[in-house]
């Protein structure tokens, strides 16, 4: 590793900047944030399913809450999956959208089945 003289340090040798280390730290932070978003989306889906199991599930306010929670779940999972796919460099680029669509359809199907009982 080549040391460089730096005028601020009184001419003391200083290692070159480690850009690759900072890039890895940014990727790790992005990946952590994406996993938190996916976990938050899962919590929102569980909340919507819990509303579907409540005794007042057929009231308008409950249906509104279930719709909002399912929408919040889908948005958080979409943003999380997009960041994961982008950070890890997975191809094809639009596959996060397909995974999000599958998440939303399965969540909507589960809600529909629970509301029919």
Describe this structure in words.
This protein is mostly helical and 117 residues long. The protein has one domain (18-116). Helices cover 74% and strands 3% of the residues. The protein has 3 helices and 2 strands. It has helices at residues 19-53, 60-88, 95-116, and strands spanning 4-5, 13-14. A two-stranded antiparallel ribbon has the order 1-2. The mean pLDDT is 86.
Topology:
Layout: E1 4-5, E2 13-14, H1 19-53, H2 60-88, H3 95-116
Antiparallel strand pairs: 1-2
Helix pairs in contact: 1-2, 1-3, 2-3
Report, as a whole number of angstroms, the end-to-end distance.
69 Å
Number of helices in the DSSP assignment? 3
* Average pLDDT score: 86
Largest sheet: 2 strands, antiparallel
Uncertain runs: none
Give the percentage of residues in beta strands.
under 5%
Q: Taking Cα atoms only, what radius of gyration do you get, to the nearest Å?
A: 23 Å
Shape: elongated
Label the structural class. Answer: mainly alpha
Elements, N to C (H/E): EEHHH
Q: What is the total number of structural domains?
A: 1
Fraction of helical residues: over 70%
Please count the beta strands (DSSP E, at least 2 residues each): 2
Q: What is the spatial order of strands in the main beta sheet?
A: 1-2
Short overview:
Helices cover 74% and strands 3% of the residues. The chain is mainly alpha-helical.
